[in-house]
Write the structure tokens for this entry.
Amino acid sequence: MISVIIPTYNRSETIERSIRSVLNQTYSDLECIVVDDGSTDNTAEVVQSINDGRVRYYRLEHNSGACAARNKGIELAVGEYIAFQDSDDVWREHKLETQIEVLNKSSADVCFCVLMKHSVEGNKTFLFPIEISEGFVAYETLCEKGGVSTQTIFAKSYVFKDCLFDTNVRKSQDYEWSIRAGEKYSFYLLAEPLVDQYMQKVSITLNMAFDYEARMGNDLYLYHKFENCYADNVGLQITLLNRYSTSKTLAGYDASAELKELCRLSHSAKSYLKYVACKLGILRICLLYRQKTRKINALLR
């Protein structure tokens, strides 16, 4: 059996579509665990109106965040395999069948896939990730490029039972999880898009990307969390330091010390140019312009 976990919060308008895409899978031996993170709309009524014995609904007493909801789902799961879905996205009907076949043939512990992102307006799409080739993914790639999205992950249950989600992480939760899980378990990327992600105007991920103070705190937490790994994984240190120096600059703070260290570690021209721009006082202007462009693209494309 496959346990599919859907954390949700105030998604009454999209949750049924998400659940139906799970129930309509060509692989039908599954349970669908919906963990409601304290919704204040009629999400509960929508879920409970679905007449299918495979659907289980659980409501958290307090709004605790998506990671807490996912962890509760893992606790409740009884399947040999676990997969995650988001409450505003849609799976293609052969997702589970394809991934379980890949997992069994490859003997990997985790299989994730490419997803198709749809713009808020619904008129444009793009694939993610595009920089990683199909097959086993090296740990260094997981650390430096990321590419794992929660709603694409399919894994043997022991992986999630061993590696829960960190409830202190508010952004890039799947990236943080993949760093820890990837150190112990093998990851396989399936290049076929099996998930359709629909961008929402009201999105925690999108909104936090432009809440620079919160983003800075999150990136600083990640940087300190993995500092014991840096002696053996300089690539991870460079990636996390780059993230933190960027968010710190966007939040209006001087990141010259972090950028100087980044230059020392990476020896890259790009890092040096960022450091010089910081010292000249123009780095934040450049980054803010890039962020504005990204927000427009996220909404339109």
